[in-house]
Write a structure and sequence with these properties.
The complex is a heterodimer of chains A (486) and B (94). Chain A is of the alpha/beta class and 486 residues long. Chain A is built from 15 helices and 13 strands. Chain A has a domain of 252 residues: Amidase signature (AS) enzymes. In chain A, helix 5 runs parallel beside helix 6 and helix 7 runs antiparallel to helix 15. Classes of the chains: A alpha/beta (486), B mainly alpha (94).
Chain lengths: 486, 94
């Protein structure tokens, strides 16, 4: 077995007992990247020398009996997280050569834990999209079927983990951008509770919805990554100052006494019959593990796409005002007035989807339309949040599909934005309500494409998600299954 | 509902975007589809419902008013398309 195919916790065990070095792990992963990257296209930047240097340092620290919880583990992060050692492009031409003056807090925390930063992963431009096709530089492929989407917006983060091009990665999730690619690529992915993980150094898309989280090869790895990145950060005033549990401790066998809700609205029209079948099999496995299954209702689910696609673009239109060709990023040098400079730089620097969302958001916030759109959406957001609070009085977590379908062909939905937005219906509400959500591999579609199960719980109860996910993983028996590449 | 090309051009101006004629046409269609869909929210009576603008009820996360290290000027200027060592340079405004 090659080193690159180990899970993160297996690699840690091997490092701990001296069976392998961080340099050997890093070299193995770099060789794997060389072999499969021409097909997968997950990396926007790769720092070979830097990674090997960090690996040597990690090995030296281990020799001295030092090193953090992830000492020597090669990881990669979505290119929306600021790094001083490599460019941060957000998948956009407007930031093509941008090198951040500081590291995102999550990047610092991974470094403090001793991990090795391999590179930056492909994504939809400014995290706007569900397929990563909106990346200005390349479209990552689904390792299970080249030519199919890896999902988005953290498509590179999911593809790299599924293809064994890193031991784990970080993504970000504003409306499903960790959970959906995790589901389509057959990896574990968690969007933590809003406020659990610092957003400092995460280039903002929609500030009331964005959250950083891990994509991993199994549930135990997810717990380890969650402990490495969680916790209050004085630099992010929306991060919450509360104790972070030992998430690995949550991975207990059995679900006795756990009430699992099945929201009936999440099994409605448009759900692929095989996705429905696989997820229902998964629910049966959770029941076998001892859980009590109850039906619950989230009555405002049908409104979440409309709410999200007003609120997220409204926040984006404001956040992306900073890209003006003055302080960083692309500048059109032919402009002779300041307004012209703004307009030309932004028009050439931003891609289609980003422009579309800026226009929707500006419209929803503009004079005369604010009440009808932004205000109305924010009120319905309250109703959605209340749905969740009510559901969690009768259950400890909820399970459902993540995405109504398995992965589709690259290019298939590229010309119909509304159709693509509607495919996000099962993941958007968690961001609107701020609750944690997770995707865990549950089974496979007849075409061989992975299907994930979504788990959602009340605020700050990621532990119950990990516990249920761990039990599903034990019973589904597919955790070691890998795509055939090369 | 019917979004007009003039409305799209007006919003583009507010957002400091220059759109080509083809872009205006395409975006008008897309915005019309998306905003027509959003009109679904009118089915709900939200009279008296509070707005949720943030998922957590955090109020005034202040820190102590102490001087802390800030980003050195040369690093703040390092990514500027044009700068003079002290400031960002832009076309003449006045």
């Amino acid at each position: 077995m090659e080193h690159y195919s180990l899970t993160l916790h297996e690699a840690l065990d091997q490092l701990d007992c001296g069976a392998v070095t961080s340099v050997a792990l890093t070299e193995s992963v770099l060789a794997r990247i060389d072999a499969v990257e021409p097909q997968v296209q997950a990396y926007l930047a790769l720092d070979r020398e830097g990674a090997l240097r960090q690996a040597e340092q990690a090995d030296a620290r281990r020799k001295n009996g030092q090193g953090g919880s992830l000492c020597g583990i090669p990881l990669a992060v979505k290119d929306v997280l600021c790094t001083t050692l490599m460019p941060t492009t957000c998948g956009s031409r407007i930031l093509e050569h941008f090198v951040a003056p500081y590291d995102a807090t999550v990047v610092t925390r991974l470094a403090q834990a001793g991990s090795v930063l391999l590179g930056k992963l492909a994504m939809d431009e400014f995290a706007m999209g569900s397929t990563s096709e909106n990346c200005a530089f390349q479209t990552p492929n689904n390792p299970w079927k080249i030519g199919y989407v890896a999902g988005g917006s953290s498509g590179g983060s999911a593809a790299a983990v599924a293809a064994d091009e890193c031991f784990a990665s970080l993504g970000t999730d504003t409306g499903g951008s960790i959970r959906q690619p995790a589901s389509l690529c057959g990896t574990v992915g968690m969007k933590p509770t809003y406020g659990r993980v610092s957003r400092y150094g995460l280039v903002a898309f929609a500030s009331s919805l964005d959250q950083v989280g891990p994509l991993t090869k199994d549930v135990r790895d997810c717990a380890l990554m969650m402990n490495a990145i969680s916790g209050h950060d004085p630099r992010d005033s929306t991060s919450i100052n509360m104790e972070v549990p030992d998430f690995s401790g949550a991975l207990q066998d059995g679900l006795q006494g756990v009430r699992i809700g099945v929201p009936k609205e999440y099994f409605g029209e448009g759900l692929d019959p095989e996705v429905d079948r696989v997820v229902r099999q998964g629910i049966a496995m959770l029941k076998e593990a001892g859980a009590t299954i109850v039906e619950v209702s989230l009555p405002h689910t049908e409104y979440c796409v409309a709410v999200y696609y007003l609120i997220a673009p409204a926040e984006a239109s404001s956040n992306l005002a900073r890209f003006d060709g003055v302080r960083y990023g692309f500048r059109d040098r032919t402009a002779d007035s300041l307004i012209d400079l703004y307009k030309r730089s932004r028009s050439q620097g931003f891609g289609d989807e980003v422009k579309r969302r800026i226009l929707i958001g500006t419209y929803a916030l503009s004079a005369g339309y604010y009440d009808a759109y932004y205000k109305k959406a924010s009120q319905v957001r309250t109703l959605i949040k209340e749905d969740f609070a009510k559901a969690f009085t009768t259950c400890d977590l909820m399970v459902s599909p993540v995405c109504p379908t398995p992965a589709w062909k690259i290019g298939d939905k590229a010309d119909d934005p509304l159709a693509l937005y509607l495919s996000d219906i099962l993941t958007l509400s968690a961001n609107l309500a701020g609750v944690p959500g997770m995707s865990v591999p549950c089974g496979f579609h007849a075409q061989g494409l992975p299907i994930g199960m979504q788990l959602q719980s009340a605020h700050f109860n990621e532990a119950i998600l990990l516990r249920a996910a761990y039990n599903l993983e034990q019973r589904a028996g597919i955790a070691g299954k890998k795509p055939l590449l090369v | 509902m019917k979004i007009t090309q003039e409305e799209v051009q007006h919003v583009a101006k507010l957002a400091r975007l220059d759109l080509t004629a083809a872009e205006v046409e395409r975006m008008t269609g897309h915005l019309d589809a998306i905003l027509s869909y959003a009109a679904k929210l009118d089915e709900l009576d939200t009279t008296g419902v509070a707005l949720t603008t943030h998922p957590q009820a955090v109020v005034n996360a202040f820190r102590d008013d102490e001087v802390q290290e800030s980003l050195p000027r040369e690093r703040a200027l390092a990514n500027a398309p044009e700068q003079n060592g002290e400031s960002f340079v832009v076309p003449r405004i006045i």
